[in-house]
Design brief:
By secondary structure, the chain is α/β, with parallel strands linked by helices. It has one domain (3-250): NAD(P)-binding Rossmann-like Domain (Rossmann fold), CATH 3.40.50.720. It has nine helices and seven strands. It has a seven-stranded parallel β-sheet with strand order 3-2-1-4-5-6-7, sandwiched between helices. α3 (63-73) runs parallel beside α4. The radius of gyration is 18 Å and the shape is globular. It binds NADP nicotinamide-adenine-dinucleotide phosphate. NADP nicotinamide-adenine-dinucleotide phosphate binds at residues 7-14, 32-34, 37, 58-61, 86-89, 109, 136, 138, 178, 180-181, 183-185, 188.
């Protein structure tokens, strides 16, 4: 039996990864900040699928939290075969409307935690000659969209570079780039979603099924939906200035909700 560690497992895309991987018979290490919610999730997945689900409470915006997950990933007596770096969040507001503290917290969770956890996992996986890392980025990586988009662009570039460096080692690396997904993300960030057209919303379970199929195929960047594949094709051909105007408005409603 293999083991998958998922950060941000208790809600949205992370919980869809946990459901799907448990249904496929993988043991899980579930990581988030809310211990009670983690415990309930572990019990439910164990009871439903007969897998072992370990709980690891960690705040990935802190050194202590990142170090705790690094230590688990480095434990060679209980190896982790698949790491899903999924924990993340949005800040409401454009550049200079978001506090510096919140911007830095985002960089800690979206960049430092992803770098450190990927590296801890990849070291151990490389020595065993197998393993996989999925880093959840966003299609926002491809458009000008504040610190959020910039941090996700880092995730894509970093993952592609690491995948190249690890080619032939047996370790697969993939950046997952979803479009808008119905999760707790927008509500947590206090963002309005009224101006996001219905066709742009993705289902987390379908997204995860497609992402895992892409990982099995050996893709290093996954945009797992035909609508967003087409949209990103258009984005490549659109002048950056025009792109910035559209992307900075969509899904970033300001003022009282
Ligand atoms: N939803 C979208 O439209 C969308 C689109 C593209 C990309 N994404 C990306 O997908 C990933 C998952 O987002 P989601 O939409 O599933 O969000 P979500 O529903 O809000 O879930 C976020 C998860 O991350 C955990 N988390 C948040 N901050 C954390 C921290 N500091 N330390 C540890 N865990 C933390 C949360 O649990 P606790 O609060 O208990 O810690 C929760 O389990 C993110 O990286 C996001 O940027 C989302």
């Amino acid at each position: 039996m293999t083991t998958a560690l998922i950060t941000g497992s208790t809600a949205g895309i992370g919980s869809a990864f946990a459901r799907r991987l448990a249904a496929q018979g993988h043991n899980l290490v579930l990581v988030a900040r809310d211990t009670e919610r983690l415990g309930e999730q572990a019990t439910e997945l164990h009871d439903r699928h007969g897998i072992e689900a370990e709980v690891l409470t960690a705040d990935l915006s802190t050194d202590k939290g990142i170090a705790a997950v690094e230590a688990r990933l480095g434990d060679r007596t209980h190896p982790v075969d698949l790491l899903v770096n999924n924990a993340g969040f949005g800040n409401k507001g454009r550049y200079l409307e978001v506090s510096m503290a919140d911007e830095l917290t985002m960089l800690k969770v979206h960049i430092e935690a992803v770098l450190r956890l990927t590296s801890a996992a990849a070291e151990s996986m490389r020595s065993r000659g197998r393993g996989g890392v999925v880093n959840v980025a966003s299609v926002a990586a491809f458009v000008p969209r504040g610190t959020y988009g910039a941090s996700k662009a880092w995730v894509v570039q970093f993952t592609q570079g690491a995948a190249k460096d690890l080619a032939g080692s047996g370790v697969r690396m993939m950046a997952l780039c979803p479009g808008f997904v119905r999760t707790e993300f927008h509500e947590r960030a206090g963002m309005g979603t009224d101006n996001i057209p219905g066709w742009m919303w993705l289902d987390a379970d379908k997204l995860v099924a497609a992402a895992l199929a892409d990982l099995a195929r050996g893709k290093t960047v996954s945009i797992p939906d035909p609508r967003y594949k087409a949209l990103m094709g258009v984005v490549k051909l659109t002048p950056r200035g025009l792109l910035g105007g559209v992307s900075s408005r969509t899904g970033r409603k300001y003022g009282p909700q």
